[in-house]
Amino acid sequence: MEETKGRKVPTLPWMRSPVDIANYEECPVTQVPLLEPRLKDALQNLGIDSLFPVQLAVWLETVGPGAFDRDLCINSPTGSGKTLAYALPIVQTLSPRALRCLRALVVLPTRDLAVQVKQVFDSIAPSVGLRVGLAVGQSSISDEISELIKRPKFELSSLYDTDYPHEEYQSAVDILVATPGRLMDHINTTKGFSLKNLCYLVVDETDRLLREAYQSWLPTVLKLSQSNQQGLVACSGSLLFSRLGSMNMVRRCGVERGFKGKSYPRLVKMILSATLTQDPSKLSQLDLHHPLLLTMGVTRYKLPDKLESYKLVCESKLKPLYLIALLKDLGAEKSVVFTSSVESTRRLHTLLKYFGELPVKVREYSGLQRQSIRSKTLKGFRKGEIQVLVSSDAMTRGMDIEGVQNVINYDMPAYVKTYIHRVGRTARAGQGGRCFTLLRRHEVKRFKKLLEKAGGNDSDIYPLPADSVKSLHPSYLSALEKLKESVESRRSKRARAIFKPSSTGKRNHNDSTARK
Ligand SMILES: Nc1ncnc2c1ncn2[C@@H]1O[C@H](COP(=O)(O)OP(=O)(O)OP(=O)(O)O)[C@@H](O)[C@H]1O
């Protein structure tokens, strides 16, 4: 990153001349150029009357002549509608299919996010006869396989004959939404699972996915999809071209930039985030083709327009009291409270549980819990049966929960990106929302700088009702006492479990290691 007159300029030249999403306005669905009538109806049935600016900007780069000639890198605020921005053109482009095969892959970092994105595809893809699959490990691998792969007719013989041709297996889906771990499981072990016909790869929450290698999922996907594309070029005019349909035929006649020495058609990539990385070494892993950046405004990051930001400044030991006073003040509004770690999430949740005077249902949501518990909590929160979630950063990325009015940073986030993703759980889709950050005095200056980096203004002090903190003291002390007892009882239970002899009369394994 170079610095000119205080403004940071991206190192990569193509990032310096982006398409500015701020120049686009919402566009009524009825006026979206070249939109398939069946998709128009599907959108209207969902209550979507207009496309958001990012959706229109992406649409115009992905339909018509010259469409999808370049890989797209989309940096647009939280809640601005990025999911539909990629789902809509992919579904439309794949709609004129002759044969079912896996042609689009969407990768997301967590299971809950993948489930959410699958729902968006499911709301439009069936209207044009496309099927969407999910590979996240939500069900057993065999259940997942039966959803993703159509077995050959003579299944019995295929089971015993190791030479049975893989081509006999067919994909049961056109689009797959996956997390990297389960995707690799299918690549490595599922008979008939193939990326050889892949046309579109979406890497959502790109910066998070590129940070973690997950068994080299990205190079593997690129290799498996590209190796075949050489073959497809060799037999051009055949399978793929007929499958892609009229729109891609138009594209073939369009501007075919930079294809010298490269296979064509190629795997088209779309990468997205509200905090898209500008790091050349990270982006180089994606092997982007003539990339085009779409970004909102001139600053690197942008907070949602209708987000109001407040701070509450207090001593460290008074933070729980300030939080409780704030939650009482917010009443039954849906809120997410973020802490700095899974351990403090658990502690804070237990303390709130013992406090007992809150008029709302509070639940923990963190990486320490089993997935089934997390999913149940999320369901309850979506339905409004739970009003407050105490969460670790497992919730920060992408989760779209209707009606979240407040985000509370119980601990100030260490990084600007964390702040952006946390506060982005509210003020989504053009709605309003509030963010509160609890600060210790020495954090005030740092927080101001963090807000500047995030593209926001300094925040006002939130005025809690007079005496609201003081009046909580007695109940707080009793809750603290209960918390202490609960921690001690958990500790002694753990100790008993370690020293308990097993049914064979021997001490258990933990015991022997503990004594070493
Ligand atoms: N055109 C539209 N009209 C009305 N609502 C929409 C439209 N497009 C998307 N939405 C709604 O906006 C919300 C945010 O969309 P989405 O989750 O795609 O945002 P995002 O940009 O991916 O956010 P994040 O960066 O936090 O992942 C969703 O609830 C979605 O249903």
UniProtKB/TrEMBL annotation:
The Q motif is unique to and characteristic of the DEAD box family of RNA helicases and controls ATP binding and hydrolysis. Its EC number is 3.6.4.13. Residues 487-516 are annotated as: Disordered. Keywords: ATP-binding, Helicase, Hydrolase, Nucleotide-binding, RNA-binding. Residues 63-294 form the Helicase ATP-binding domain. Gene3D superfamilies: P-loop containing nucleotide triphosphate hydrolases (3.40.50.300). Belongs to the DEAD box helicase family. This is ATP-dependent RNA helicase. RNA helicase. The keyword RNA-binding applies. One of its GO terms (molecular function) is ATP binding. It holds the Pfam family Helicase_C. It comes from Aristolochia fimbriata (White veined hardy Dutchman's pipe vine).
